[in-house]
């Protein structure tokens, strides 16, 4: 059975895209077949995997809001790394919110577009934009699990309430199979007082503590350099903190099956 | 004449809110009267100034999408620092996008709501959410200047094209008085190869180079700690890198009048 993960947090810049790319690559290194689905109109996961968006070749836009002329097999591409495939995004996706306003079942467009992929991959991991709008709701309607990157900073911590409420609402109204697999502390810098404080706050919180993953992603320059090189960090520099942390995350996700 | 600045970049987590709060406070320290307008439904600028959002007291939502029962003077609050006022945000603002879809002149709601403030402040600085949607367009319709924080990282750099195109389009169709005052390099970490590379790329670019401000905001832990304390960095720790950099920015903005 394919595990389908949404990586989401409406706070911007918390490490959603970095987590999608690097968890995907680390799972591939563990021998799993992985598909990345980029549902962010800024297509950073596409770019971070070294793929150039191409309107002619097609993108997730064609599946979610296009005229139906392209199928999932038309737009799905392989990356340079065997067993790590991608459905790229494109800036056209920005228009999808408005284009789908009047369309019935607009929150289920992704789910119906990707239903034929069931069983073809061990993991399907979806990147989302920094908002709880229609694109993210589409991902919540399709996925069975949510991974919540949370920068150890008060603005990211404060965003969790609204995010959890939204996931609960989707769970009740649209997709009762959706549950939160875990909260991932990211960009953790042990030099800052605030980093420690927020990590402790997460651990102590009734709602968030039990969901906090053991793996903590440390802030480290290799992650930023690898994103610049268009490569996941496990392929960019194996012995780095980034590669270590995302490998640990992959193993922890494998050890925690979907609820 | 009041200078009205939009602080915008659709890439998440590039330091928009940190810049709004700290530039505002640094300008107040230079003796200017400053108003912060928080147009992000996640109300981080409100929180970062130590103010709790309160639906009864009102927020920017009441002015942009409410029933007209509240005026700008009802919702405007002073912060703990004399000469630094705020129009707070509230989570209700998330609904404004959808609520205003059918309303004529929906992009001008902010402009008409705040028109009576002309001349009351030296600076009005607006925070925006990480998207180019209706809330950000409202700010572009109202403001006369745009300050673009750009993290020295490839994802933030790549977002500039779409942002500039959007500002150009607003300038032609809605607000011909809008121009870009500058690009502010933020979260600059001289230890990373990518930090240097993106800064050099910005300087060398035909479109972005001439707009790049001299001030560069360095990544430093005091900024994160001050945000956690609900205080601008110039009030949190005067001698820190953060206080130095945002004071330099305030002086540079004062020396570069609106185009
Ligand atoms: N562990 C880390 N160490 C250092 N830098 C990191 C780390 N994780 C993420 N970053 C950097 O932080 C920035 C934000 O990361 P990223 O773009 O993945 O966040 P995001 O949540 O996807 O942002 P958005 O909300 O815009 O989609 C990027 O510059 C990225 O390289
Ligand atoms: N110069 C800096 N040094 C250290 N940390 C910084 C600096 N500037 C911003 N930050 C931190 O980076 C994160 C992102 O900053 P901020 O929230 O201001 O960005 P934003 O662009 O407003 O994000 P969003 O897109 O979610 O609105 C925060 O955790 C903030 O404290
Ligand atoms: Mg992202
Ligand atoms: Mg912000």
Structural overview:
2 copies of one chain form a homodimer. With 259 residues, the first copy, chain A, is of the alpha/beta class. Helices cover 41% and strands 17% of the residues of chain A. The first copy, chain A, has an 8-stranded mixed beta sheet, with helices on both faces. In chain A, strand 7 (179-188), helix 9 (193-204) and strand 8 (212-218) form a beta-alpha-beta unit. In chain A, helix 1 crosses helix 12 (241-255). Chain A binds chain B through residues 10-14, 17, 42, 44, 47-48, 91, 94, 97, 101, 129-133, 151, 153-155, 158-159, 162, 189, 191-195, 197-198, 221, 224-225, 227-228, and chain B through 10-14, 17, 42, 44, 47-48, 91, 94, 97, 101, 129-133, 151, 153-155, 158-159, 162, 189, 191-195, 197-198, 221, 224-225, 227-228.
Q: Topology, please?
A:
2 copies of one chain form a homodimer.
Chain A: E1 3-7, H1 16-29, E2 34-38, H2 44-48, H3 60-64, H4 72-75, E3 77-78, E4 84-87, H5 96-99, H6 109-114, E5 123-127, H7 134-142, E6 145-151, H8 154-173, E7 179-188, H9 193-204, E8 212-218, H10 221-228, H11 233-236, H12 241-255
Parallel strand pairs in A: 1-5, 1-6, 2-4, 2-5, 6-7, 7-8
Antiparallel strand pairs in A: 3-4
Helix pairs in contact in A: 1-12
The complex binds adenosine-5'-triphosphate (2 copies) and magnesium ion (2 copies).
One adenosine-5'-triphosphate sits between chains A (12-18, 40, 44, 130, 186-187, 217, 219-220, 223-224, 227) and B (11-13, 130, 151, 153, 155).
């Amino acid at each position: 059975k394919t595990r389908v993960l949404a990586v989401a947090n409406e706070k911007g810049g918390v490490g959603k895209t970095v987590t999608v790319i690097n968890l995907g690559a680390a799972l591939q290194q563990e021998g799993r077949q992985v598909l990345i689905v980029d549902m962010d109109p800024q297509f950073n996961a596409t770019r971070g995997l070294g793929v150039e968006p191409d309107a002619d070749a097609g993108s997730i836009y064609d599946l979610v809001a296009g005229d139906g002329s392209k199928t999932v097999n038309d737009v799905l591409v392989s990356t340079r790394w065997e067993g790590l495939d991608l459905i790229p995004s494109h800036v056209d996706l920005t228009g999808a919110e408005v284009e789908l306003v009047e369309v019935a079942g607009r929150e289920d467009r992704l789910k119906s577009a990707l239903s034929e992929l069931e069983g073809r991959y061990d993991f399907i991991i979806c990147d989302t934009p920094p908002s709880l709008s229609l694109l993210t709701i589409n991902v919540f309607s399709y996925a069975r699990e949510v991974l919540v990157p949370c920068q150890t900073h008060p603005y990211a911590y404060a965003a969790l309430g609204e995010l959890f409420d939204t996931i609960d609402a989707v769970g009740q109204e649209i997709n009762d199979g959706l549950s939160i697999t875990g909260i991932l502390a990211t960009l953790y810098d042990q030099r800052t007082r605030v980093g420690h404080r927020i990590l402790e706050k997460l651990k102590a919180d009734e709602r968030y503590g039990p969901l906090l993953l053991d793996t903590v992603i440390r802030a480290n320059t290799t992650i930023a350099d690898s994103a610049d090189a268009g490569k996941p960090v496990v392929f960019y520099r194996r012995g780095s903190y980034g590669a270590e942390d995302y490998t640990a995350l992959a193993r922890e996700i494998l050890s925690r099956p979907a609820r």
